[in-house]
Amino acid sequence: MTSPLLPILLSFLFLPIHYVENKPTAFFNNEKTALVKSTDDDKNPARRYEELQLAGRGLSKQVFECAYKGYQHLVKKQCLNNPSILTICDLSQSSNRKRLYILDLEENKVLLTSYVAHGRGSGGEYASRFSNNNRSHQSSLGFYITSSTYYGENGLSLRLKGLEPGFNDRAARRSIVIHGAAYIGDEYLQSNKFMGRSYGCPAVPFDECDEIIDLIKNGSCLFIYYPTKKYLQRSKILNG
User: Taken in order 153, 157, 162, 166, is the CA torsion positive or negative?
Assistant: First the structure.
């Protein structure tokens, strides 16, 4: 005698295969969409600033908000190959302070803070003069995109592309790059009143150079800040 359940069981064996496969496909699509929304979440800069606890690291809200505004402009223009990283060089601070901030905005955390030099033509302990001109030995303000690495006379170095005409677009022809230097760091400061200066490059301590370059290379945003009225009022990235 045949069990009355047998026809029901057999019917399940011959269900169309696509019926079973469609279920997990829909699930993963929803999961991917949620991930994209989370990654692209446009957080309020003030909220970002508080979450990253940047006040305790010496970075003012005004500087961060300028950097974040320009960074978002570049993200929306799809200019960045590495949009999760934002690096801020705050030249309004003393060169004796760790005024270089590398932020991971996807993970919402500070990856590293370090010393960074300004150009010898820009000032002593504090920078106050800036130029886009060759042989000025001054730092150049504004937004940059990091590029490729190379080995030069200062070891591992990182090319920079200046994005702002009149402020930093001559960076490549001036050979403005990130490189390591012996004239900046804790050891140098022990026997000097303030950090050494470069020919205009944002030089960093030798012992941290490789790590810094590895974190920010190949298409991330770098912002070099100082509150000059000329830059803040005329920057097309900040005022676009």
Answer: negative
Global model pTM greater than 0.85: no
| pLDDT at residue 131 greater than cutoff 70 | yes
Distances (CA, A) of 198 to 40, 49, 121, 188, 231: 37, 30, 9, 14, 22
Cα(126)–Cα(227) distance, integer angstroms: 13
Closest by Cα among 89, 95, 56 to 178:
89
C-alpha closest to that of 125 among 90, 93, 88:
93
Under the banding of pLDDT at 50, 70 and 90, the label for residue 3 is: low
State how beta strands 221-225 and 155-162 pair.
Answer: unpaired
Are 200 and 121 a contacting pair, CB within 8 Å?
A: yes
User: Do 182 and 188 form a contact (C-beta atoms < 8 A)?
Assistant: yes
Of the candidates 51, 57, 168, which has an alpha carbon nearest to the alpha carbon of residue 106? Answer: 51
